[in-house]
Amino acid sequence: MLSLNKPKLDNLANEIWKSAERLRGKFKAYEYQNVILPIIVIRRLECVLIQWRKKMREEVLAKRPELEAKPIELDRLVKKLEITQAHFSNGTDHTLESLAEEDPMLLEDNFRAYLNGFSRNVRDILDHFNYHATVTQLVKNNRLAPILNQYRSLTLGPDQLSNLEMGYIYEELLRRFSEQSGEEAGEHFTPREVIRLMVELLDIPTPTRHTAIYDPACGTGGMLSVAKEHLLDRAQGDAERQQVESYVTLHGQELSPTNYAICRADLLIKEDKEARVFLGNSLIPHNPSGKEPGDQLAGPHDRFDFMLSNPPFGVTWGGKDGYEDEARRYAATRYRAGMPRTNDGALLFLQTMLAKMKPVDAGSGQGGSRIAIIFNGSPLSNGDCGQGESEIRRWILENDWLDAIVMLPDQLFYNTGIYTYVWLLRNEKPESHRGRVMLIDARQQFDKEPKAFGNKRNRIADAHRQWIETRYRDGWAERFEDDDVKLYHTTDFAYHKVGVVFWQTDAEDRPAIVTEPYEKAFTAANMAREQAFYDSALQFAVQARRGDRTVEIRFSLNPDDSFATVWGDAVRKAFAAELAELTKDIAETRERNKATKAFIDGLALQVTWTHRHYVADDEYIPFDPAGEPAEYIPAFLEREIAKPIIRWQDSPQLGYEILPNKYFYRYQPPRPASELLAEFWALEKEAEGMLQRVGGK
């Protein structure tokens, strides 16, 4: 695979960036990319056309040499061939070079004519950039001529810059634009070395049949492009290269119109006629009349052999600015396993990919799909037992789709320094993988970047990638030993969430009895909950005040007692005289009871109660596939709590979480006290020397 000459590309990015700086004062920072990215695309397309015209002129002259003396006729013929045969075209005679040299008074009209002269497929790209409106702003702010002069002769053709290199330029500029406008650059792209690692871990074979590759959040198309370019680079000879071109098709969706336009332009230049990339939100159903386009690759035949993606971290899909209502239309189908919290939709992307897996034929074992997806740490363990994230993990693991997780170094990405993880999933696991999940700790597999790019200070070199790939390939063998590779059964990530009530003990380790103020409202509903929880006699001492008189009322409440009856009888006895006076003139029983209830409810109360010191807690107990929960759960509680267990209740389903940091924890003993003291005194001596030097001055 082609390696990137980053110094060369950075110099070019810096040169392009200068044009963005010329917009300062006339455009807001978030508008810079609206000007620069489309003109780069236009110039790159123009470079392709100029090269095509040159080649076509040579072919025409080889057949009709007499046209060399008739340049006007030759130009007309080449233009006709361009419009009828080229993958895209421009019907005018303009170029950015010629436009920049023409009468400035005609510049706007001629430039608009040049834009409108492109074929429909290019105009569609410009429409998604909304570039005609941008041209109006450029003219209004007197910036059209300077921008065209900047790009009139910039060498951006595929013969000078490969698609891989141009992708780097796009994405470096996107990062800078994002920093200027305070947006998240990570929504746009993934470092190429990470994409290459994902592609190689997918182990896409040289195709002998149709092979479909998909990315539900394809951005500028980096994942898809690198996947196909990797297959082309690996091809042995022209025949295999032709197989890749013939059989491999790329498919994707992208929500950002700008990124979508760049991706479409890239595919157009490659003349990839079979690529299907759509503008829209791949997480919601497509409704042509909806507020935004949805998943346009959701048909019964939209199944893919290989899928890879870096969905945005922590994307919010709920709230007034989200699309929760639309996403929940898939709740009974695509997202039937569960839906994550609305402030992190990462697992919605994974479920979308899993829904597009090709089924495995039970008879032949053919078919199936493989997935590589990048996550931050949240999808590993967010969500408690029974909640959306845990239920999604349970669904994945119980179906045995998760194959491996690779823990990557931190500071690999441009907009964040956090650790990230590559999840590898497949529904056609070989026998040695079935029922198991591999974890690879590659956090130390990196070199420092010679120059930091935003938060990207580390990089994965070829040696690190090969280190990871070797362990993923060979680590399934029973005798393979490596501290950075661990194999687990899918059930090793399962746990019971058990609600337990136990009797706390006192200093003498005897079951404790507590007397304390009752801080909640003294109501029948609260008392019913206390009776159910303690399931034993409760003692109450109540200071009840009516006017100037305060009476202490003591009573017991057993589990089956009616609080209203017991408390009512106690009050009637304590305030017998007051109640007799209150109701002496009320003959009707219903009214007498009503007046008595109002009297009781009007008392000012200060309640102290005595009860067993019960504690309610949740215990997370590892699932034991070989045991019976009715046996190992009580044994765990008795061992771990070591208090009298009153009762426990298991959750109706297992929870699932994956904790790579825990599995690869390596104990490091504290440094000896003598060593720490020696270091302290050395620092003390150094500080004294510094003070003496300062004093000497």
From TrEMBL:
Keyword 4Fe-4S on entry: no
EC number: 2.1.1.72
Domain annotation N6 adenine-specific DNA methyltransferase N-terminal: ranges: 12-149
GO annotation terms (biological process): DNA restriction-modification system; methylation
Annotated DNA methylase adenine-specific domain residues: 166-475
Record-linked SUPFAM superfamilies: S-adenosyl-L-methionine-dependent methyltransferases
Catalytic activity: a 2'-deoxyadenosine in DNA + S-adenosyl-L-methionine = an N(6)-methyl-2'-deoxyadenosine in DNA + S-adenosyl-L-homocysteine + H(+)
Pfam families reported in the protein's UniProt record: HsdM_N, N6_Mtase
Keyword Amino-acid biosynthesis: no
EC class name: transferase
GO molecular function: DNA binding; N-methyltransferase activity; site-specific DNA-methyltransferase (adenine-specific) activity
Stored InterPro entries: D12N6_MeTrfase_N (IPR022749), DNA_Adenine_Mtase (IPR051537), DNA_methylase_A-5 (IPR003356), DNA_methylase_N6_adenine_CS (IPR002052), SAM-dependent_MTases_sf (IPR029063), T1MK-like_N_sf (IPR038333)
Keywords recorded for this protein, A-Z: Methyltransferase, Restriction system, S-adenosyl-L-methionine, Transferase
Stated family: Belongs to the N(4)/N(6)-methyltransferase family.
PANTHER family tied to this protein: SLR6095 PROTEIN, TYPE I RESTRICTION ENZYME MJAVIII METHYLASE SUBUNIT
Name used for this protein in its record: site-specific DNA-methyltransferase (adenine-specific)
Lineage, highest ranks first: Bacteria, Pseudomonadati, Pseudomonadota, Betaproteobacteria, Rhodocyclales
